[in-house]
Write a structure and sequence with these properties.
22% of the residues lie in helices and 28% in strands. By secondary structure, it is α+β, with helices and mostly antiparallel strands. Strands 3-6-4-5 form a four-stranded mixed sheet. Strands 1-2 form a two-stranded antiparallel ribbon.
Length: 136
């Protein structure tokens, strides 16, 4: 799939292979992925931060695929973690699922989620290639 996004990493800001400081997206169709958490297709909540994070990322990937796009076209990820969660453990769990697709990322610590036991929620914004928009 063709990448639609261009990473913006200005000189003078620290470089990091895990994220971009900005992402340029040409005008066109976008998909806004609602908050995904560590719940599988049966509705079961995974246990532990790493498992929930990996499942949340798989859920994001499923929505992207259904919308006709892929991680290369994600302009922004927002990751909400339960207060006190280990950010490094959550980040480590994303790698095997997400791969090397840096984008603009914001990580927030929150006091809680609507469903008890949820430790992480991830939402995304992605560009959708022309001609790949699913039929309504």
């Amino acid at each position: 799939m063709t990448e639609l996004t261009t990473l913006v990493n200005p000189e003078g800001l620290p470089a990091n292979p895990a994220f971009a400081h900005g992402v340029l997206v040409p005008s066109g169709a976008t998909v806004y992925v609602g908050g995904q958490n560590g719940i599988d297709s049966t509705g079961a909540l995974m246990t532990g931060l790493a498992e929930q994070t990996a499942q949340a990322m798989r859920n994001v990937l499923a929505v992207l695929d259904a919308a006709g796009t892929s991680p290369e076209n994600v302009a922004r990820l927002t990751i909400h973690l339960l207060e006190g969660s280990d950010v490094r453990a959550a980040f480590a769990a994303t790698g095997p699922v997400w791969g090397a697709h840096p984008t603009a990322i914001t990580v927030l610590m929150v006091a809680g989620f609507a469903r008890p036991g949820v430790l992480v929620e991830i939402d995304a914004i992605a560009a959708v290639p022309a001609g790949r928009i699913p039929a309504e």
